[in-house]
Design goal:
mainly beta, flat, single chain, 33 strands, 14% helix, 7-stranded antiparallel beta sheet, 2 helices
Length: 478
């Protein structure tokens, strides 16, 4: 065998080597602290080093389906990646390296979470993972200092922005911490960071140097300044000046009184207008509850392993007696079913009996939602607005998942209130106690149809709708 053939044989053998042996996924850091706008490196590596062939590398945060980066057999699968990480998440040394360190560019506050580096041998099913906590902070800008006269005293102030979490404020006089005659205001910026404005009032000469600073609660680093106030800064006013100031503030106080009196009247009118709107909404809700919509399951849309009873009021977690015909209306990827009739306006209420099933979802969806192809998440981005139960967890599947306030840990019947008469809203209730579980806004486009939506996991029971004589629109959903 020539040297060239020996080299070729070696590389082919190396690529074909199975990774089914034991391996470890390791990280040198259990917690990373990065600044907003910077890049984060979440370290992860394999021991022993292995090639990418035969491996599935899945970076996700908290929940398994919140995919940050996914690679199979050395190929990145971007269609499974969550939208917020598109173009920002990659492996530091590329997909051909055994170094699985995640590079996350331009970090934002919402990136703070627990990240999992999950590696699986596709052939054997063996897997291991490393977990890293990512904390995102804002270290604050350099303070802008100002000095002003106020009521015969000197007020020293500073303004600084881009902090997260909220900083701690310190003032010192002659090197001693003081809290008297100080004030601070912390406000939210549009990007989630905080702006801080603080001041100290110096009432007489001889104060010496002043130190003002903001200290970061995570890093412990302080950002501040020293300033010396000369005794000449403190004003000396004559009695005429005090008389003038008294008259000026008296007039100013009268103007302020008139202004706030007018403002209070405007606020009272606005409160009455708001109260009237709330009463109208309450009337619409009560009318809908007293005259519930007659909702039925659409068997033409049901997943092939789900069946609908003859009265169209029960969705059963079992296949129908005969194999259902394929159609564009039927779900082929997820275990879902739509209801009818559709709604475009008005207020509508119906109830769904979920029983003691461990996996289900109830809500509404657009008729344009995905029904075939790759798996997808139940989110408003996928034209689905719903709540769900996953074994012991009751969750609202909004843009960001939120736990539901289920009293007693059980939820046997869900009330669905769809309000399309104004702002398009969906409210879901525990119909036993009438406690509101969750509310969605901006449900679908204006004048667009909205359909009842249901999902039954493999561990779910049957879903039942309330029987009612009569009904509105009996058209099937296509």
């Amino acid at each position: 065998m020539t040297m060239e053939r020996a080299s070729l044989f070696f590389h082919i053998t190396l690529l074909a080597t199975s990774v089914s042996g034991k391996f470890q996924v390791q990280s040198t850091d259990s917690r990373q602290v990065v600044e907003v706008g910077s890049d984060a490196l979440l370290q992860c590596s394999l021991t022993p080093p292995l090639g990418p062939v035969g491996l599935k590398v899945h970076w996700f945060r908290s929940l398994y389906h919140s995919t940050v980066f996914l690679m199979k057999n050395g190929q990145e699968e971007k269609d499974q990646q969550s939208d917020e990480y598109a173009g920002r998440a990659s492996l530091r040394n590329g997909t051909g390296s055994s170094d699985l360190t995640l590079l996350l560019r331009n970090v934002v506050l919402s990136d703070a979470d627990t990240y999992h580096c999950f590696v699986e041998d596709i052939a054997s099913g063996l897997y291991d993972e490393a977990v890293i906590q990512l904390a995102v902070i804002g270290t604050g800008s350099l303070p802008v200092m100002s000095i002003a006269l106020k009521d015969g005293a000197v007020m020293v102030s500073f303004l600084t922005s881009d902090w997260f979490p909220k900083p701690e404020i310190h003032w010192k006089l002659h090197g001693v911490f003081v809290t008297a005659d100080t004030s601070e205001t912390i406000s939210n910026q549009t990007n989630g960071l905080f702006t801080l404005e603080s001041s100290i009032l110096l009432k007489g000469p001889g104060q010496g140097y002043v130190y003002g600073a903001a200290q970061h609660p995570v890093t412990g680093r302080s950002t501040g300044f020293y300033v010396t106030i000369s005794d000449e800064m403190f004003p000396r006013l004559s009695s005429w000046a005090y008389a003038f100031l008294f008259a000026f503030f008296l007039i100013l106080g009268g103007a302020a009184f008139v202004f706030f009196a007018m403002k209070r009247q405007i606020a009272e009118k606005e409160a009455l207008r708001t109260q009237n709107g709330e009463l109208c909404s309450e009337v619409d809700w009560r009318k809908a509850v007293m005259n519930p919509a007659y909702i039925r399951f659409s068997p033409e849309t049901a997943y092939p392993e789900l069946s609908v009873t003859g009265d169209l009021l029960t969705l059963m977690n079992q296949p129908p007696p005969a194999t259902p015909a394929q159609s564009d209306a039927r779900f082929e990827t997820e275990r879902c079913c739509l209801g009818f009739p559709p709604f475009t306006d008005g207020c509508h209420y119906w109830e769904v009996e979920v029983g003691d099933g461990l996996e289900w979802a109830v809500g509404v969806a657009s008729p344009h939602l995905q029904r075939k192809g790759d798996a997808y998440m139940f989110r408003p981005q996928a034209l689905i607005w719903c709540i769900a139960r996953f074994t012991d967890a009751f969750t609202a599947l909004d843009t960001k998942e939120s736990p539901l306030p289920v009293v007693g840990g059980t939820l046997e019947k869900v009330g669905v209130y769809l309000n399309l008469s104004g702002p398009r809203e969906l409210h879901l209730y525990d119909s036993r106690s009438w406690d509101r579980l969750y509310s969605f806004t901006d449900v679908g486009q204006e004048r667009e149809r909205v359909l009842p939506f249901f999902w039954l996991g493999k561990n779910g029971g049957n879903l039942k709708l309330k029987s009612q004589n009569g009904g509105r629109n009996d058209n099937e959903i296509n």
